[in-house]
Amino acid sequence: MDITELVGAIQSLNTEDAFRGRLNFEQWRVLSQYLTQHELRGGDMLIRQGDSDRTMYFLARGSLQMFASGGGHRVTVLRPGSLVGETMLFLDGPHTVNVEAMTPCGVWALRAPRFEELAQRVPGVALEIARAAGSVMARRLLAAMPRPAPVA
What we know:
This protein has 152 residues and is α+β, with helices and mostly antiparallel strands. The chain has one domain: Jelly Rolls, CATH 2.60.120.10. It contains 5 helices and 8 strands. It has helices at 3-12, 25-32, 86-90, 112-121, 123-144; strands spanning 36-40, 45-47, 55-61, 64-67, 74-78, 83-84, 98-101, 105-111. It has a 4-stranded antiparallel β-sheet with strand order 1-8-3-6. Strands 2-7-4-5 form a 4-stranded antiparallel β-sheet, with no helix packed on it. Helix 4 (112-121) packs across helix 5 (123-144).
């Protein structure tokens, strides 16, 4: 898996909560040195509800589903270019949903200690990652909020 696959997936994802990091290709190459690559088979769990893991994942290939234990209902399906686990990069606490591979997937992981190292060594890239991940979190929060009923 090459960083160009991930960058292409991120640039082509057209969803409201898409990761819109304003990084040039050289900055992505620098960032890739702080990421680890993982391959998942369909049915593999990437994130387990209740676990504490300060890792954010970029989905390069495949599809993931997020769902809460107990109800088993699907929360959402994530396509290539999506970001998942971004909240836990900034919080200490348990995950609130499960994330499972629906198909074979390729993901890139950014663990909190590596993000902190990136912030020390290449602060501009780290700041842009934090800004763009914050935007994803804000958009997802807004989408989850109940909408007021229209006034007739």
